[in-house]
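Tokens as discussed.
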């Protein structure tokens, strides 16, 4: 007797499990169901029982011939399905987020902050933009615009700006060509066989002070005359 009830209970359980998998209560495959994990069996069985109860509720509502009851039952079943789908979607999303955090640990804190309500524009650190050589030059030109004497021997560049100007002077093709031409002119021999006076290149204010008014000199690849 116990065996009979046990077999009956297994058949009913298998029927509901099969119904929960999208089948019917009549074509359950015991072998296929036996291959499921205990957790999946329980989940599908509960889903099958809910589908069975929904069918009974809908059948009862139809037999009542009460339009309001039919609408209310339909809405209840529809809402239950929607809630279940939302819960599954949320669970799947959570799994996907955890996997992404595991694969990208350096972004885990950012993800947690955004999920915690911090705006993405605040949570995501801004990558500092690179300053180009032209940006530095424009900055120096702005200083010269404010003070036209900035960069002259009497008011030399700051060390940082001087470094930038040296880099520009060494990489600018026109400036390099001009320095080469000036160098050639300084070492050329004139028609009488004498050598032209070499125009000195100065580097700082101390060199400038050593010059006399009217002396020519080169500063940052440009020729000047002191006092002019």
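Sequence:
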């Amino acid at each position: 007797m116990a065996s009979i009830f046990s077999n009956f209970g297994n058949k009913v359980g298998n029927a509901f499990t099969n119904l929960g998998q999208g089948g019917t209560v009549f074509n359950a495959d015991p072998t296929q169901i036996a291959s499921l994990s205990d957790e999946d069996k329980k989940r599908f069985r509960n889903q099958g029982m809910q589908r069975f109860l929904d069918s009974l509720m809908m059948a009862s509502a139809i037999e009542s011939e009460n339009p309001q009851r039919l609408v209310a039952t339909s809405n209840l079943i529809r809402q239950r399905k929607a809630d279940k789908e939302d819960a599954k979607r949320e669970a799947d999303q959570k799994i996907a987020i955890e996997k992404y955090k595991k694969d990208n640990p350096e972004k885990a804190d950012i993800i947690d902050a955004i999920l915690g309500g911090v705006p993405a524009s605040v949570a995501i650190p801004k990558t500092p933009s690179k300053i180009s050589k032209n940006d530095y030059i424009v900055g120096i030109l702005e200083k010269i615009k404010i003070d036209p004497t900035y960069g002259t021997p009497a008011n030399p560049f700051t060390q940082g700006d001087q470094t930038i100007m040296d880099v520009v002077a060494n990489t600018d093709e026109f400036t390099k060509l001009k320095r080469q031409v000036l160098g050639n002119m300084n070492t050329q021999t004139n028609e009488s066989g004498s050598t032209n006076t070499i125009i000195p290149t100065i580097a700082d204010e101390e060199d400038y002070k050593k010059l006399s008014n009217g002396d020519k000199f080169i500063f940052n690849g440009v020729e000047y005359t002191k006092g002019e």
